[in-house]
Write a structure and sequence with these properties.
The structure is a single chain. It contains four helices and six strands. It has helices at 26-43, 64-77, 91-100, 116-125, and strands spanning 6-12, 15-24, 48-53, 57-60, 80-86, 110-113. It is of the alpha/beta class. Strand 5 (80-86), helix 3 and strand 6 form a beta-alpha-beta unit. Helix content is 38%, strand content 28%.
Length: 137
């Protein structure tokens, strides 16, 4: 059975924690982008980070890529400095995620890990501490 495209967003201090699920199309990407920016605007007075849990994400249609790219560029302009991507090694996910943001250009600020505890540890090392180190609280 295919997982319904969905997402959960929560903030913990200056970290936005996102859990994405299912195969994404343009409509869900646009809705997510709007909600992500709304959350980001509340944090942009200070550097902030995000941790995204991708294990249940089933890739996206190509028209999603520019929407997410624009959102991530917006986030960087608005003080987001670090990204932890959590997912088991998956070549297609890595390929599509890297197309959405120039990972090579941002390699010091993007970390791919296989479990969320590693992601939270990496963010802590860079000064982003959370109260509840869980993907979904």
């Amino acid at each position: 059975m295919m997982i319904k495209a969905n997402y959960f967003i929560r903030t913990d201090n200056n970290v936005v924690i996102v859990h994405v699920k299912g195969a994404w199309d343009l409509a869900i990407a646009e809705k997510f982008s709007q909600e992500f920016k709304k959350v980001g605007r509340q944090l942009n007075h200070t550097p902030w980070a995000h941790l995204v849990y991708f294990d249940e994400w089933a890739l996206s249609t190509p028209d999603v890529e520019p929407v997410i790219n624009e959102m991530l560029v917006w986030a960087q302009v608005n003080n987001m400095t670090h990204t932890a991507r959590v997912y088991k090694d998956h070549a297609l996910k890595t390929y599509q995620l890297n197309r959405m943001l120039d990972a090579e250009k941002h390699k010091d600020n993007i970390c791919h890990v296989e479990n969320s505890s590693e992601g939270f540890a990496w963010l802590t090392k860079h000064g982003f501490h959370v109260t509840t180190a869980k993907v979904v609280a």
